[in-house]
Write a structure and sequence with these properties.
By secondary structure, this protein is mostly helical. The chain contains three helices and no strands. It comes from Dermatophagoides pteronyssinus (European house dust mite).
Amino acid sequence: MMSGFLILFLFYFYLSISSSTNILILLILVEFMILFCFMHMVFLSFSYIVGLFFILIGVCMGAYSICVFIFLYRSKSSSYILSSSLELLY
């Protein structure tokens, strides 16, 4: 039953990624997917080393999502400043 739920979760995860336009929603979904896979492995009694590996992946994805968010925020701010200054020139 848990495997069926995992397959269903993967399917909805794929649908939400394919229809997602916001990168932050995509990264949050990836974080939840990693967390769910970790909980699934703990439920199936996998070793703790595999669990620690998934925690490491989750931490790396969290750091990556923060970097992407900061990059997008800076690029939006700089493009807004650039467009504002160009409007003043014309």
